[in-house]
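User: quick one, sequence for these tokens?
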């Protein structure tokens, strides 16, 4: 899930406009992941953020039935 640094976020709205799944909203002047189930990990929000307030940590999943 995208992690948004509220201290860095300027509320520019770029990530919200760019999100193809509408997973983000502006709440009290800060981007917030309001619909995490909709997030498809495309990283568009992280890429477009002009102040690098969004980090999308990658998750490594190990499975025994590969």
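Assistant:
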């Amino acid at each position: 899930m995208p992690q948004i640094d509220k201290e860095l976020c300027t509320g520019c709205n770029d990530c919200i406009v760019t999100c193809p799944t509408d997973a983000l909203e502006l709440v009290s002047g800060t981007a917030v992941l309001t619909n995490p189930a909709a997030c498809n990990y495309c990283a568009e929000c992280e890429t477009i953020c002009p102040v690098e307030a969004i980090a999308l940590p990658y998750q490594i999943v190990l499975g025994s039935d590969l």
